[in-house]
Amino acid sequence: MAAVIVDGVSKRFRLVHERNSSIKAIVMSGMKRVVYDELWALEDVSFQVDEGETFALVGHNGSGKSTALKCLAGIYRPDDGEITLNGSMSALLELGAGFHPELSGRENVYLNAAILGLPKKEIDLRFDDIVAFAGLERFIDHPVKNYSSGMFVRLGFSVAINVEPEILLVDEVLAVGDEEFQRRCLAKIRQFRNDGRTVVVVTHSLATVQTLCDRALWLDHGVAQALGPADEVARQYLESVTGVQTKDHEILLDIDCSLERTAGSHDAEMVVRTTLQAMPADGSIVIELVDPNLGVTIAGARHVTGGHDQFDVECTAAGLPIAAGRYACRVTAFDGNGDELDRDERPVYLLESNAIADTLGPVRVPFTFSAPSPLTSDR
After folding, report:
1. Measured between alpha carbons, how far is 374 from 379 in angstroms, rounded to an integer?
2. How many CB atoms lie within 10 A of CB 113?
3. Are 45 and 224 in contact (CB under 8 A)?
4. Hey, is 188 helix, strand or coil?
């Protein structure tokens, strides 16, 4: 049975060139008509998602992916066509959507879950699980206006999944979470899939499409270009972006990273070797050394690759004043529009370091102190 049916849906927006902002402006303009262009964000799009299927919408920025998801969520009303949802639905579409900034995290959990149709008794039973998944036990009674963007999305996603919808809609907002939280989100979506629930996801990560999704729809300027198995649609989209035919279903990256003490120095040297294939002519890669505990980038660089079928890149970063410990090497590939094509990550260890041993934190930066002047007494 189909959980989602989209039949010939079109959505139009008006792009206004001149807008009268006051009554005076209207009078002075002689009641001139507003000038605008029409933008069809979706044109005659049709697809269906079966119960228990994980379905992806892919395409470049402005292709209509998020518009389609908002139509599914009922935020936008299609100008043409029909949408049918067979089952309860929960959506995570925008960062902090539905949150009141002056309310605490606790109050927003109850407000958001109630909007999604969960009775208070059910919210009471699931509240601890919601907070624990978001990892916000210490901050749950603070106003959400003081939350970071990552805290916003963690709480929003946790509420959305813990109401246990039959259909879950997820936009690319997960990209703002740290690596550990993204992995937990993907694991939760896999659990949804195993439980027979339906997931529709918008993503720029083709690796996620291939590993997580059953089928996909590729949109380009609001028009459906391909619909079918996720691997095949991801391959077709990648070939359109890169202009290079891929040899197999592995998208782009294979990385090897080492992190060692630099000879004669207290600092560390990182060497990253990356094999890429089917990169677009204006593509680029970003190489980062990440602290997995804090989810922050310690060092990173961007490199424009140029168009190649398959090639190797070696990157060396010397003089890193970091402590011994476990890190992560992350390589992300982008097309010319800044859309993520693929991401790979490997754990990497620095076994020995005496870089400024008395300082704290993963990055050892020298500090200087001035001793306080002794107190004097008139006695």
Report:
1. 15
2. 23
3. yes
4. helix
Domain spans, the chain: 52-74+89-242, 254-350
Whether the CB-CB separation of 363 and 298 falls below 8 Å is answered with yes
Per-residue pLDDT reduced to its tens digit, 117-164: 788 898 999 999 999 988 889 999 999 888 887 788 888 888 888 888
The whole-angstrom distance between residue 183's C-alpha and the CA centroid of its chain comes to: 11
Quick one: tokens of 337?
Answer: 């529009």
Q: Three-class SS of residue 278? A: strand
By CB atoms closer than 10 A (0-12, 13-18, 19+), residue 142 is middle
The single-letter DSSP state of residue 338 is S
Nearest to 58 by CA among 252, 254, 229: 229
Q: Give pLDDT, residue 72.
A: 95
Burial 168-184 (b: 16+ CB within 10 A, else e): bbbbbbbeebbeebbeb
Q: Is the pLDDT of residue 251 over 50?
A: no
User: Considering the domain 254-350, what is its CATH architecture?
Assistant: Sandwich (2.60)
pTM, full prediction: 0.64
What does the pLDDT look like over 153-202, one tens digit per residue?
Answer: 888 888 888 888 899 898 875 555 566 677 777 778 888 888 889 999 99
> Position of tokens 């509420």?
159
CATH code for 52-74+89-242?
3.40.50.300
Calpha distance 153→140 (Å, rounded): 14
HEC letters along 289-315:
EEECCCCEEEEEEEEECCCEEEEEEEE
Closest C-alpha to 123, from 71, 75, 159? 159
Phi, psi of 42 (to 5 degrees): -135, 140
The secondary structure element, H or E, covering residue 130 is helix 120-134
